[in-house]
Amino acid sequence: MENTHNFILPKTNLIGIGAIKDLPNELLAWKLSKALIVTDKNMISLGYVENVEKILKNLFISYDIFDGILHPNPTVSFVEDGLSYFKKGLNVLRNYKLIISIGGGTNHDCAKAIAIVATNGGSIIDYEGYNKVTKPPLPQISINTTAGSGAELTMFAIIVDNSRKVKMTIASPFLTPYITVNDPIFMTTMPKEVTASSGFDVVSHAIEAYVSTEASPLTDSFALDAIRIAFEYLPRAYENGNDLEAKEKMMYANIMAAMAFNNAGLGYVHSMAHQLGGFYGQTHGCYNGILVPYVFEFNSASIPKQRIMKLCEAMGASTQDTSQAIDIIIDSIRRLTAKIEIPGKLREMGLKENDIETLSQNAMKDITVFTNPRKGSVEDFMSLFKSAY
């Protein structure tokens, strides 16, 4: 019986304190060409974009800067605004050969979407779902500043279609960036609330990848280590933004969790959180922090005992009783979210009871449902939303 697990990653990943110094060698292939930088005004004010500009100038790579990403949760309009840079006349200087995203997941996802439509045409809405992209997008260099969404190295892009109030999941191996840079020096300026939300996103990625129906020994090892690291170092990174050791550890946890979910998939936490983000536009990682305990309890009946025990151990506890292990896991997650001041209920983040049925129907359509360990119904989603309300 066949049992294959493909493992998809960017070609090159520059990782660690000072990793940005290795980027020039990786960009030699694009010497004398033109790049589009996709970023936001905050990255410019922090000086991160200027650092990359210096590298490009030294390699005689000309560039334009699209800084029209105005808030987290990238929208179809952001993508269209970025694409307008390709349409300003027929001058060869607009013939971009490379896209460079600088920032967190919002900027990387927006850059992926721009790169897709630039070579495939149409609207980004056309590519919602899995494997709808037929031509390679422009190659993307992702310079990451959060730990993190994992978007800098995955084959997914999440884009909000405001007309439907839906967060679209766009997935294709073609979306995988070509080169990534994860340098903790770029992460010390993260505000506490970003450290909390992006840090718990790491935890949710790792947990969902570990219990996924497509999990493998490779993804398991990355997921469990990401959980161990995050439970130890996320509170430290949250309390002290200048704790470079904690930032570096969370950077590694982010990378490992992203490698896990990029190849094992996610589950109901993300199918639900995507809908909440589409409706209310608040922080994705905080939605995850509220939802994980409820979804894990729902899924627990379909998770093998051995996996529950290993998950419990990764969070620093040990027991031989499955029921007790489930309780420990749920309690450990809630204690972690309390430490980093993530809200406890969805009503605190805008959820309206009247929206629950629509949110549940939309969640059933999200591609992340396919690898959830327990198969549910619209009614199950409604029950989960109500429990977390």
UniProtKB/TrEMBL annotation:
It holds the Pfam family ADH_Fe_C. InterPro entries: ADH_Fe/GldA, ADH_Fe_C, ADH_Fe_CS, Alcohol_dehydrogenase_Fe. GO terms for molecular function: alcohol dehydrogenase (NAD+) activity; metal ion binding. Gene3D superfamilies: 3.40.50.1970, Dehydroquinate synthase-like - alpha domain. PROSITE patterns: ADH_IRON_1. Residues 195-389 form the Fe-containing alcohol dehydrogenase-like C-terminal domain. Belongs to the iron-containing alcohol dehydrogenase family. This is Alcohol dehydrogenase, class IV. It comes from Desulfosporosinus meridiei (strain ATCC BAA-275 / DSM 13257 / KCTC 12902 / NCIMB 13706 / S10).
